[in-house]
């Protein structure tokens, strides 16, 4: 196996895949990347057994072959070479020899045959979607995923495909985020999969903000996104997602409109003096005025007032300020709409008039 | 701050002493109260006669019987002990309103402002112990000092049926020679960690800077720093606040069958809900975490918890499954419970979504 390439043509794919590799490994080969060279170019693969990223690159090949090498060392080597360096890679007696100018590195290898690949035979269905739509879907929801919750099915993102619509839902039991985007999907029945948290974070790193299409493949036990030069695959969480529709409030009649940025700033300011652990704040809303109050165990107090549009019955309600700020930050209209029912009911946060995303935040009892 | 006067009253082998009082023939015999050996019970307490054989509370009854075949093990009569405990507590209130019961047989009294016995804490303790003896036929030990930590240490000093004072001017010398394992919260694990650093006594501990203790023992390091100097600012808190509620079951035979464990879990959960029903609404609403506890056949114990506001069966089921995935050994004891939030600063209680979870 032998090839020669400008530095960036190998550094770029390494940077795309190396996020998958866990820092600490029980299985040594998982610290390596798989390099495969054939007439189509160089294919670089990294995996953590749950998720796999493959990146392709054009290189000048002179002898095909495949091998695995330690990803961090290879990446650091490439990264520290000069920008315009030409790199020569050669496999010699089970060592990977990298030469560039007066630099010569010899890395250990492990056989390509031992590199684990995710089994992706059974495809359920496929569709195309714009990268930025998929990116939006994730960005608008991923913050509400649970982290290491014993309800393991919450430690991921629910993705639901139905006719012409792709939906994502995340919840940790305290708040919920939901976003819909349109997509060219034809399916006789709704398809639901739960994508693990780590996969979602990695995928959102790979997605770019342009309208180039990607191909999404939903398999029986995997979820795959095919880019022009990258293939992302993750296993699914095997579990039943809770009935999220049941916790989206429908009966709320107390509607408040507020300037998103002003409200956000008010919450962030007030939160400085909320209890650092529990993050409780109190909102008093009446007569087009919202007063946010917080205090902490040191008996310090914050009070902040903003003008809003609200002419319903006076309402006093408590929230974890982080949850509320997350939801309001995720709305991208200038005005935000918040719908309450009463002090004990959840708040529904929505864009000014669009219905494509919504956030449910459970209150804190005062 | 003015110097406080704290008394720690500790009844001598309380449950056993009550049983012996009610049945004087037992007086010279080794007696214990607890669960029966053939039901894999554990001893709650035993008298000094039994302690000569190396028997102590929390010991498996079957094991205690091996140490002392003549041991008389009486069943637990909690109702009786409770009513005696109430009689004793009523006496405490004759001297001060600041009474903090720790359990049925132990309490802290803050008598700093008490006018009884010319304001002498030692005399109050003596009088209390005499009254407990003459009115109830039971013996108590007492420790007197300037804070809870020292008072509790002192009550242990002249046990049984004695009392001991640690005066402010004696604290320094007293602490220097005190082994670290006498500090509240220093169990086997901490003691051995301390031993690694050649720390055996409080004098050794005092030699360590605050930052060092904090680095090696986290928040507990803070406590170690002050307790090793005999300093303890904790107030005698009069309103007892329940911190947790749990139910558990020791099996007649170890269980390793998952479905059997799950059905035990369902019964335990029903029992937990029944017990919670009796609690105040405020307390019920302040659940902070739920937990599952497992003791294996080799007595090794392990627990796992999850923050939750509700004691739903689902969460316990998931916790048990998680635990079993990690370790599928046969189980001797299964327990579940809830911990309540005791943080006063937490005026806000996060509400949970109700997914109507089904498994």
What can be said about this structure in brief?
The complex is a heterodimer of chains A (366) and B (359). Chain A is an alpha+beta fold and 366 residues long. Chain A contains 6 helices and 26 strands.
Tag the structure with descriptive keywords:
heterodimer, A: 366 residues, alpha+beta, DNA Polymerase III, Chain A, domain 2, 3 domains, eight-stranded antiparallel β-sheet, 6 helices, 17% helix, B: 359 residues, Alpha-Beta Plaits, DNA polymerase, domain 1, Dna Ligase, domain 1, five-stranded mixed β-sheet, four-stranded antiparallel β-sheet, 14 helices, globular
Q: Strand tally of chain B, please? A: 13
Oligomeric form: heterodimer
Count of separate structural domains of chain B: 3
Overall structural class of chain A, as computed from helix and strand content, comes to alpha+beta
Overall CATH class of the largest domain in chain A: Alpha Beta
Low-confidence stretches of chain A: none
Structural domains of chain A: how many: 3
Under CATH, the homologous superfamily of the largest domain in chain A reads DNA Polymerase III, subunit A, domain 2
- Supply the CATH superfamily name of the largest domain in chain B: Reverse transcriptase/Diguanylate cyclase domain
Helices of chain B, by number, come to 14
Shape, per Cα inertia axes of chain A: elongated
Q: How much helix is in the residues of chain A?
A: 10-25%
Return the average pLDDT of chain B rounded to an integer.
88
The share of residues in extended strands of chain A comes to: 35-45%
Number of helices of chain A: 6
CATH architecture of the largest domain in chain B: 2-Layer Sandwich
Radius of gyration of chain B: 23 Å
Major sheet strand order of chain B: 5-6-1-7-8
Explained architecture:
- The complex is a heterodimer of chains A (366) and B (359).
- With 366 residues, chain A is an alpha+beta fold.
- Chain A contains 6 helices and 26 strands.
- In chain A, the strands form 4 sheets. Chain A has an 8-stranded antiparallel sheet.
- In chain A, a hairpin with a 3-residue loop joins strand 12 and strand 13.
- In chain A, helix 1 packs across helix 2 and helix 5 packs antiparallel against helix 6.
- Chain A is elongated.
- Chain B has 3 domains: 166 residues, Alpha-Beta Plaits (2-Layer Sandwich); 56 residues, DNA polymerase, domain 1 (Orthogonal Bundle); 114 residues, DNA polymerase, Y-family, little finger domain (Dna Ligase, domain 1, 2-Layer Sandwich).
- In chain B, the strands form 3 sheets. In chain B, strands 5-6-1-7-8 form a 5-stranded mixed sheet.
- The model of chain B has no long low-confidence stretch (mean pLDDT 88).
- Classes of the chains: A alpha+beta (366), B alpha+beta (359).
- Strand 26 of chain A pairs antiparallel with strand 13 of chain B, so a sheet runs across the interface.
């Amino acid at each position: 196996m032998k090839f020669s390439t400008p530095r960036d043509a190998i550094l770029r794919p390494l940077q795309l895949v190396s996020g998958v590799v866990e820092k600490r490994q029980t299985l040594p080969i998982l610290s390596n990347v798989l390099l495969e060279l054939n007439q189509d170019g160089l294919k670089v693969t990294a995996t953590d057994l749950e998720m796999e990223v493959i990146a392709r690159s054009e290189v000048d090949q002179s002898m095909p072959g495949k091998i695995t090498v330690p990803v961090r060392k290879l990446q650091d080597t490439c990264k520290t070479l000069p920008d315009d360096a030409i790199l020569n890679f050669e496999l010699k007696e089970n060592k990977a020899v990298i030469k560039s100018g007066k630099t010569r590195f010899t890395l250990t290898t492990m056989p390509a045959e031992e590199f684990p690949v995710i089994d992706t035979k059974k495809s359920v269905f496929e569709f195309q979607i714009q990268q930025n739509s998929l990116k939006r879907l994730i960005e608008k929801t991923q913050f509400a995923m649970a982290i290491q919750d014993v309800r393991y099915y919450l430690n991921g993102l629910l993705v639901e495909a139905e006719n012409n619509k792709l939906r994502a839902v995340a919840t940790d039991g305290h708040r919920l985020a939901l976003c819909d985007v349109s997509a060219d999907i034809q399916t006789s029945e709704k398809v639901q999969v739960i994508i693990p948290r780590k996969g979602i974070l990695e995928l959102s790193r790979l997605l770019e903000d342009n309208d180039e299409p990607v191909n999404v493949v939903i398999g029986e036990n995997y979820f795959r996104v095919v880019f022009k030069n990258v293939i992302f695959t993750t296993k699914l969480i095997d579990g039943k997602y809770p009935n999220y529709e049941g916790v989206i409030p429908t009966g709320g009649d107390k509607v408040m409109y507020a300037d998103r940025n002003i409200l956000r700033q008010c919450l962030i300011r007030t939160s400085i003096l909320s209890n650092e652990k529990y993050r409780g704040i109190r909102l008093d809303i009446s007569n087009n005025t919202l007063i946010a109050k917080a205090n902490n165990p040191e008996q310090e107090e914050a009070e902040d007032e903003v003008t809003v549009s609200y002419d319903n019955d006076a309402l006093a309600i408590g929230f974890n300020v982080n949850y509320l700020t997350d939801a309001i930050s995720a709305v991208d209209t200038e005005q935000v709409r918040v719908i309450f029912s009463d002090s004990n009911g959840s708040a529904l946060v929505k864009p000014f008039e669009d219905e494509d995303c919504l956030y449910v935040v459970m209150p804190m009892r005062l | 701050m003015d110097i406080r006067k704290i008394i720690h009253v500790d009844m001598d082998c309380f449950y056993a002493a009550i049983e012996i009082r009610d049945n004087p023939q037992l007086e010279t015999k080794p007696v214990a109260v607890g669960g029966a050996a053939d039901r894999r019970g554990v001893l709650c307490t035993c008298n000094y006669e039994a302690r000569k054989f190396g028997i102590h509370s929390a010991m498996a009854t079957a094991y205690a019987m091996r140490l002392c075949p003549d041991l008389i093990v009486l069943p637990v009569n909690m109702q009786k002990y409770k009513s005696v405990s109430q009689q004793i507590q009523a006496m405490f209130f004759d001297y001060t309103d600041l009474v903090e019961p720790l359990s049925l047989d132990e309490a802290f009294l803050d008598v700093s402002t008490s006018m009884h016995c010319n304001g002498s804490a030692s005399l109050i303790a003596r009088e209390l112990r005499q009254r407990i003896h003459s009115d109830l036929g039971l013996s108590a030990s007492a420790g007197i000092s300037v804070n809870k930590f020292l008072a509790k240490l002192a009550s242990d000093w002249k046990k049984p049926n004695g009392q001991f004072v640690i005066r402010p001017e004696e604290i320094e010398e007293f602490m220097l020679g005190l082994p670290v394992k006498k500090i509240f919260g220093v169990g086997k694990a901490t003691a051995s960690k301390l031993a690694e650093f050649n720390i055996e006594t409080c004098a050794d501990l005092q030699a360590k800077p605050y930052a060092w203790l904090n680095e090696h023992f986290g928040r507990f390091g803070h406590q170690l720093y002050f307790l090793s100097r005999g300093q303890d600012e904790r107030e005698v808190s009069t309103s007892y606040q329940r911190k947790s509620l749990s139910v558990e079951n020791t099996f007649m035979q170890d269980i390793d069958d998952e479905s059997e464990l799950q059905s035990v879990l369902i019964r335990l959960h029903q029992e937990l809900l029944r017990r919670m029903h009796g609690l105040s609404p405020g307390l019920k609403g302040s659940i902070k975490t739920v937990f599952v506890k497992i003791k294996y056949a080799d007595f090794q114990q392990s627990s796992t918890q999850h923050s939750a506001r509700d004691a739903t069966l689902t969460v316990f089921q998931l916790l048990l499954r998680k635990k079993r995935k990690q370790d599928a050994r046969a189980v001797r004891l299964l327990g579940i419970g809830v911990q309540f939030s005791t943080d006063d600063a937490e005026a806000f209680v996060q509400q949970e979504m109700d997914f109507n979870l089904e498994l």
